[in-house]
Structure formats: C-alpha cells, structure tokens
Amino acid sequence: MQDFKQRVVVITGAGSGIGRELAWQLAARGAVLVLNDWKEEGLEETWAELPERSKGLRKVFDVGDKEAMQAFAEEAKSKLKRVDVVINNAGMSVRQQSVTKLAIEDYEKTLRVNLWGVIYGSQYFLPYLREQPEASLVNISSVFGLFAFPGSGPYNVSKFGVRGYTETLRVELGKLMHISCVHPGGIATNIHRNVEMEEGPARDRFLRNFEKQAKTTAGAAAGKIIRAIEREKPRLLIGRDAYWIDKITRLMPGSYERVLARWFKPEQFL
What is the pTM of this model? Predict the structure, then answer.
C-alpha cells in the first residue's frame, strides 16, 4: 500500500504515544482516520490537531468492551463506506510484581485490553478489510511477546497472545491481505507512567530505568509502522533492543531463561 490518500485507517489507543503519532503522520499522507481511546481528553487533543479532511470518526471506549468494538466497526463502515487499514495499538500494563504476588484480577485487566482488545479489533473489522483489494491489519505486540521478562507476567502473557493470534491469522489469511505483528522495544511514551505501583523509591527507580532504556521516540516508531504497511512487512521489530532480544531468543530458545535468571534472585519473587 503505497498511497494512503483517502484510505480509511482505524487506530486504537490514538490519544497518546505511538497511536497519536500514527494518526498525525497518516493524516499528513491524506488518510481518513477512525480513532479510539479510553481517555477522552487525550483523544480530543489528537483530534484537534488533525486537518478536517482526515476527520472520519472518533469514539471513546475501552477496547476490551466487545459490544463497543463491534458497534465501532459497524459505525465506521456505515459512515465512511470502507475500511482499508486497522492498527490495533491500544495497550496497558499493571504493576511490576512477581506472578506469586499478582492477583487474578491483574491478569484479567491486562488481557482484557491487550489481548481481547486486539482480537475484537481484528475480528470485527476483518470482514470490511476483506472487501478491499488492498488492505492491512497491524497488531501491536511487544518485545515482551518475544521473551518472558520477570515481574511482568500479565503483560508477557498478553503480548505473547497477540503474537500467536496474529501469526495464526497470517498463516490462514496472509495470501489474501497484509497482516503484520509489531514488536516495539523501549519506546518513549507515557505507558510506563500508567503502571500501577505505589509511590516511592521503587516506582521512581522503575521510571528512571525505563526512561533510560527507551531510546526510540513514538514518532520514529510510528514512521516504521507506516513503512511496514507500505512494504507489506509481516513482522516488524522496533528499536535496537528489540533486534537484540529477537536474536538472543532465536539463538538460545531453550536457555535464555537461565541467562535472565542469573540477574535476579528467587527471593525477589516470593
């Protein structure tokens, strides 16, 4: 897909970070945008910066709400008559904790947005994408969908799930349309500030470490995703850290866990 002019592009999580940058950059290419976010203020800020020709539809809702996503897809098709690209970008994380300390509710909350949001956003838009001779479905996973990082159980599970779901779709439908799974590394967005952790030294240390490692800007990440759509790439790694993690897990699929375990003490997770 080389030309986005008048193409209808759906982006979830468009109120900040990569989603906002995707909206602005695609608008500059002439796309008509269908945007979602669960925070009205952020979505309105994104919307306000768009040219009028790119303002298709915006809706505030939780992507983990099945009925709301179905209604969103139906309204987009009814109002704009077509859907060319869907980017399931919305995501969240929960507090950094051991799997032995996390509650079941932490998993339910994270999977509702990160995994079910992607599944709903794919399933309800796929029939409309299939109507187009050229279409793209892009699901955002993470480097945490490539390896299991300690203290991030629910997030790991959700992002491995996005990877598995998207790769299955690609095996089944990849000859009919472009389907891509994206694995960003550390991206300079505000998602880490929404992690549920008690205020104090531990939270401050977590934020400093994340910001130190997040070398890729949201704008640069959005640009890479757009180029992946243009070139119909089935898989995209974003950031030097993503390339290293991918390489290590490919070279050491059965032993990278032991390498990670050397950096941590079991007592941290009991």
Answer: 0.88
